[in-house]
Description:
By secondary structure, this protein is an alpha+beta fold.
Amino acid sequence: MKFKKVIASLILIFSSASLFAQNIGEPTGNKFLDYMHGRSLFGINFGPTLYAGLFDIGIGLAEPTIQKTINDMTQGQADNYIDTKLKHYAFGLGFSYDFAPLNFMTVGLDIGFSVGQIKMDKYDIAFSTIPWSLNVKFFFGKNAPFGFFLSPRIGGTALSISGSALREASIADIYSHGGFYLSLELGWRIQLFPKTGADWPVQVGLDISLFDIGYYVAPWSSSIFNIPEFAQFKQYQTYANIRALFLPRIGITLRF
Length: 256
Protein backbone atom coordinates (compact mmCIF):
# COMPACT_ATOMS: atom_id res chain seq x y z
CA MET A 1 0.00 0.00 0.00
CA LYS A 2 2.82 2.41 0.90
CA PHE A 3 4.53 1.63 -2.42
CA LYS A 4 1.37 2.52 -4.36
CA LYS A 5 1.10 5.82 -2.46
CA VAL A 6 4.71 6.66 -3.36
CA ILE A 7 4.09 5.90 -7.05
CA ALA A 8 0.91 8.00 -7.03
CA SER A 9 2.73 10.89 -5.38
CA LEU A 10 5.55 10.76 -7.94
CA ILE A 11 3.06 10.73 -10.82
CA LEU A 12 1.28 13.76 -9.32
CA ILE A 13 4.54 15.66 -8.86
CA PHE A 14 5.80 15.00 -12.39
CA SER A 15 2.40 15.79 -13.88
CA SER A 16 2.28 19.11 -12.02
CA ALA A 17 5.82 19.94 -13.12
CA SER A 18 4.93 19.12 -16.72
CA LEU A 19 1.87 21.37 -16.64
CA PHE A 20 3.87 24.16 -15.03
CA ALA A 21 6.59 23.87 -17.67
CA GLN A 22 4.01 24.09 -20.46
CA ASN A 23 2.30 27.09 -18.93
CA ILE A 24 5.41 29.18 -18.35
CA GLY A 25 6.39 28.84 -21.99
CA GLU A 26 3.20 30.41 -23.29
CA PRO A 27 2.93 34.16 -23.93
CA THR A 28 1.04 35.82 -21.12
CA GLY A 29 0.32 39.17 -22.74
CA ASN A 30 2.13 40.80 -19.84
CA LYS A 31 5.18 42.61 -21.22
CA PHE A 32 7.19 42.22 -18.04
CA LEU A 33 6.54 38.48 -17.67
CA ASP A 34 7.19 37.85 -21.34
CA TYR A 35 10.43 39.86 -21.10
CA MET A 36 11.55 37.76 -18.11
CA HIS A 37 10.86 34.49 -19.92
CA GLY A 38 14.11 32.75 -20.80
CA ARG A 39 16.21 35.22 -18.81
CA SER A 40 15.90 33.78 -15.29
CA LEU A 41 18.14 30.97 -14.11
CA PHE A 42 17.86 29.14 -10.78
CA GLY A 43 20.62 26.84 -9.61
CA ILE A 44 21.67 24.42 -6.89
CA ASN A 45 25.38 24.21 -6.15
CA PHE A 46 26.85 21.06 -4.62
CA GLY A 47 30.32 22.61 -4.28
CA PRO A 48 29.75 23.33 -0.55
CA THR A 49 28.51 19.74 -0.20
CA LEU A 50 31.78 18.48 -1.70
CA TYR A 51 33.93 20.58 0.62
CA ALA A 52 31.88 19.61 3.69
CA GLY A 53 32.18 15.95 2.71
CA LEU A 54 35.96 16.20 2.27
CA PHE A 55 36.23 17.89 5.67
CA ASP A 56 34.19 15.12 7.30
CA ILE A 57 36.29 12.42 5.60
CA GLY A 58 39.48 14.18 6.73
CA ILE A 59 38.30 14.16 10.35
CA GLY A 60 37.57 10.46 10.08
CA LEU A 61 41.03 9.73 8.67
CA ALA A 62 42.67 11.78 11.43
CA GLU A 63 40.80 9.99 14.22
CA PRO A 64 43.42 7.20 14.80
CA THR A 65 46.19 9.81 15.05
CA ILE A 66 44.14 11.89 17.52
CA GLN A 67 43.38 8.85 19.65
CA LYS A 68 47.05 7.81 19.66
CA THR A 69 48.14 11.31 20.69
CA ILE A 70 45.67 11.36 23.57
CA ASN A 71 46.74 7.89 24.72
CA ASP A 72 50.40 8.89 24.58
CA MET A 73 49.69 12.01 26.64
CA THR A 74 47.82 9.98 29.27
CA GLN A 75 50.20 7.00 29.15
CA GLY A 76 47.47 4.72 27.88
CA GLN A 77 44.95 5.74 30.53
CA ALA A 78 42.71 7.89 28.28
CA ASP A 79 39.82 5.41 28.41
CA ASN A 80 39.66 5.88 32.17
CA TYR A 81 38.82 9.56 31.70
CA ILE A 82 37.06 10.13 28.38
CA ASP A 83 35.59 8.29 25.42
CA THR A 84 38.10 9.00 22.63
CA LYS A 85 35.66 7.98 19.90
CA LEU A 86 35.02 10.92 17.58
CA LYS A 87 31.51 11.75 16.42
CA HIS A 88 31.38 14.16 13.52
CA TYR A 89 29.32 15.39 10.59
CA ALA A 90 29.41 18.19 8.03
CA PHE A 91 27.02 19.30 5.30
CA GLY A 92 26.73 22.22 2.91
CA LEU A 93 24.66 23.43 -0.04
CA GLY A 94 24.47 26.49 -2.28
CA PHE A 95 21.76 28.27 -4.26
CA SER A 96 21.92 30.82 -7.05
CA TYR A 97 19.77 33.14 -9.13
CA ASP A 98 21.00 34.67 -12.39
CA PHE A 99 19.29 37.14 -14.70
CA ALA A 100 20.41 37.61 -18.29
CA PRO A 101 19.90 41.25 -19.37
CA LEU A 102 22.06 40.58 -22.43
CA ASN A 103 22.67 37.45 -24.48
CA PHE A 104 26.31 37.19 -23.41
CA MET A 105 26.00 38.26 -19.76
CA THR A 106 24.19 37.40 -16.55
CA VAL A 107 24.12 39.11 -13.17
CA GLY A 108 23.40 37.01 -10.13
CA LEU A 109 23.40 36.20 -6.45
CA ASP A 110 24.93 33.12 -4.83
CA ILE A 111 24.20 32.17 -1.25
CA GLY A 112 24.83 28.97 0.67
CA PHE A 113 25.55 27.42 4.02
CA SER A 114 27.64 24.77 5.69
CA VAL A 115 27.31 23.28 9.16
CA GLY A 116 29.24 20.68 11.10
CA GLN A 117 30.25 19.35 14.48
CA ILE A 118 33.10 17.39 16.01
CA LYS A 119 32.40 15.75 19.37
CA MET A 120 34.50 13.66 21.73
CA ASP A 121 32.96 12.60 25.03
CA LYS A 122 31.40 15.76 26.53
CA TYR A 123 33.56 18.10 24.46
CA ASP A 124 32.40 19.45 21.13
CA ILE A 125 33.17 22.10 18.52
CA ALA A 126 30.43 23.24 16.14
CA PHE A 127 30.84 25.49 13.12
CA SER A 128 28.63 27.16 10.57
CA THR A 129 29.33 29.39 7.59
CA ILE A 130 27.15 31.45 5.26
CA PRO A 131 28.98 32.33 2.03
CA TRP A 132 27.38 34.80 -0.40
CA SER A 133 28.42 36.69 -3.50
CA LEU A 134 27.20 39.08 -6.18
CA ASN A 135 28.59 38.26 -9.59
CA VAL A 136 28.60 39.00 -13.27
CA LYS A 137 29.18 36.15 -15.72
CA PHE A 138 30.52 36.93 -19.19
CA PHE A 139 29.85 34.08 -21.63
CA PHE A 140 31.89 33.24 -24.69
CA GLY A 141 29.86 31.31 -27.25
CA LYS A 142 26.70 31.35 -29.33
CA ASN A 143 24.54 29.54 -26.77
CA ALA A 144 24.85 31.99 -23.87
CA PRO A 145 23.91 31.83 -21.04
CA PHE A 146 25.37 28.37 -21.64
CA GLY A 147 29.02 27.80 -22.38
CA PHE A 148 32.38 29.00 -21.07
CA PHE A 149 32.28 31.99 -18.70
CA LEU A 150 34.47 34.29 -16.64
CA SER A 151 32.87 35.74 -13.54
CA PRO A 152 34.24 38.61 -11.45
CA ARG A 153 32.55 38.66 -8.07
CA ILE A 154 32.34 40.37 -4.72
CA GLY A 155 31.19 38.48 -1.67
CA GLY A 156 31.74 37.51 1.93
CA THR A 157 31.65 34.62 4.36
CA ALA A 158 30.01 34.77 7.79
CA LEU A 159 31.60 32.34 10.24
CA SER A 160 30.71 30.92 13.65
CA ILE A 161 32.81 28.49 15.73
CA SER A 162 31.64 27.56 19.21
CA GLY A 163 31.47 24.66 21.64
CA SER A 164 32.37 23.28 25.04
CA ALA A 165 35.90 22.41 23.86
CA LEU A 166 36.65 26.09 23.32
CA ARG A 167 35.18 27.05 26.68
CA GLU A 168 37.21 24.33 28.40
CA ALA A 169 40.34 25.86 26.86
CA SER A 170 39.20 29.34 28.00
CA ILE A 171 38.79 30.48 24.38
CA ALA A 172 35.80 32.66 23.54
CA ASP A 173 33.41 31.62 20.79
CA ILE A 174 34.59 32.87 17.40
CA TYR A 175 32.27 34.95 15.24
CA SER A 176 32.96 36.80 12.01
CA HIS A 177 30.28 38.71 10.18
CA GLY A 178 32.15 38.01 6.98
CA GLY A 179 34.97 39.89 5.35
CA PHE A 180 34.46 41.14 1.81
CA TYR A 181 36.44 39.56 -0.97
CA LEU A 182 37.08 40.17 -4.65
CA SER A 183 37.61 37.14 -6.85
CA LEU A 184 37.45 35.67 -10.34
CA GLU A 185 35.69 32.42 -11.22
CA LEU A 186 36.31 30.35 -14.34
CA GLY A 187 33.76 27.76 -15.41
CA TRP A 188 31.32 26.25 -17.86
CA ARG A 189 27.58 25.93 -17.96
CA ILE A 190 26.88 22.93 -20.17
CA GLN A 191 23.43 22.81 -21.75
CA LEU A 192 21.91 19.35 -21.43
CA PHE A 193 19.75 18.11 -24.30
CA PRO A 194 20.76 21.04 -26.58
CA LYS A 195 18.93 19.60 -29.60
CA THR A 196 15.89 17.80 -28.21
CA GLY A 197 15.45 20.47 -25.52
CA ALA A 198 16.06 23.54 -27.68
CA ASP A 199 12.37 24.49 -27.61
CA TRP A 200 11.62 23.36 -24.08
CA PRO A 201 10.23 26.14 -21.85
CA VAL A 202 12.61 24.94 -19.10
CA GLN A 203 16.21 24.25 -20.13
CA VAL A 204 18.67 22.36 -17.98
CA GLY A 205 22.35 23.16 -17.52
CA LEU A 206 25.22 21.49 -15.71
CA ASP A 207 27.54 23.96 -13.94
CA ILE A 208 31.22 23.14 -13.42
CA SER A 209 33.75 25.73 -12.25
CA LEU A 210 37.48 25.00 -12.15
CA PHE A 211 38.48 27.65 -9.64
CA ASP A 212 37.52 30.79 -7.74
CA ILE A 213 40.60 32.81 -6.81
CA GLY A 214 40.67 36.14 -4.99
CA TYR A 215 41.50 37.99 -1.79
CA TYR A 216 39.58 39.11 1.29
CA VAL A 217 40.00 42.88 1.22
CA ALA A 218 38.19 43.08 4.59
CA PRO A 219 39.79 40.12 6.40
CA TRP A 220 37.41 37.47 7.72
CA SER A 221 40.20 36.00 9.86
CA SER A 222 40.85 39.10 11.99
CA SER A 223 38.48 37.77 14.68
CA ILE A 224 40.63 34.63 14.93
CA PHE A 225 44.04 36.31 15.05
CA ASN A 226 42.78 38.74 17.70
CA ILE A 227 42.43 35.83 20.12
CA PRO A 228 45.50 35.84 22.42
CA GLU A 229 46.18 32.12 21.84
CA PHE A 230 46.50 32.73 18.08
CA ALA A 231 48.15 36.17 18.20
CA GLN A 232 51.58 34.62 17.58
CA PHE A 233 50.40 33.59 14.11
CA LYS A 234 49.20 37.07 13.14
CA GLN A 235 52.12 37.43 10.72
CA TYR A 236 50.43 34.80 8.54
CA GLN A 237 47.12 36.66 8.35
CA THR A 238 47.91 37.91 4.84
CA TYR A 239 48.12 34.34 3.57
CA ALA A 240 45.02 33.25 5.51
CA ASN A 241 42.93 35.78 3.56
CA ILE A 242 43.85 34.42 0.14
CA ARG A 243 40.76 32.86 -1.43
CA ALA A 244 41.60 29.82 -3.56
CA LEU A 245 38.79 27.34 -4.17
CA PHE A 246 38.99 24.54 -6.72
CA LEU A 247 35.75 23.06 -8.07
CA PRO A 248 33.73 25.65 -6.13
CA ARG A 249 30.67 25.07 -8.31
CA ILE A 250 29.27 21.67 -9.26
CA GLY A 251 25.57 21.99 -9.78
CA ILE A 252 22.43 22.13 -11.87
CA THR A 253 20.82 25.26 -13.33
CA LEU A 254 17.28 25.57 -14.67
CA ARG A 255 16.62 28.32 -17.21
CA PHE A 256 13.03 29.60 -17.28
